[in-house]
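Weekly modeling sync, notes
Attendees: S.R. (lead), two postdocs, one rotation student

Agenda item 3: backlog of single-chain predictions. S.R. asked that every request posted to the team notebook include the full sequence so nobody has to chase files. The rotation student volunteered to paste the first one in as an example of the format we agreed on. Action items at the bottom.

Example entry:
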Amino acid sequence: MRGYNVMAGYNDNPEATAATIDKDGWLHTGDLGTMDSRGYVKITGRVKEMIIRGGENLFPVEIENAMLEHPSIAEVAVVGIPDEKWGEVVACFMRAGEGASKPEEGELRGFVRERLSPQKTPAHWIWVEEFPLTGSGKIQKFAMSEAFVEGKYEGQEA
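Predicted structure, as returned to the notebook:
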């Protein structure tokens, strides 16, 4: 974005400013979005969250929205997990709704395949009781990915 309302830079941090604001004054937010014919912008995700599986860009929010249609899932977070063959694969972290039973992986796989293409189907399904959160209440996806790689999720298949 660019305009009079964009920050001038980071306080006493010229390196961070140079990495965020280019020489023409464009602020690179890291957001992904679309613009309609009237000029309205809709934010659809973050560049840092994009999963690159076998050279294809996958957007976690699309997979998350599909999974949230399942009646047993109250909350979901999709992240990329490093993979030797594909570069990254999809991992789906889910929290069950109160009193809901946790469906088996086969049911979840079939559910998502009715809604999305095969490459967007998670390779890993992890049930959690809670998500690591930032101070503002956002899910720390990077923390879940790191913990997965370190083998910290019970019953996970790496």
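Discussion: group reviewed the output briefly. The chain has four helices and seven strands.
Action items: rotation student to repeat for the remaining queue; S.R. to check formatting next week.
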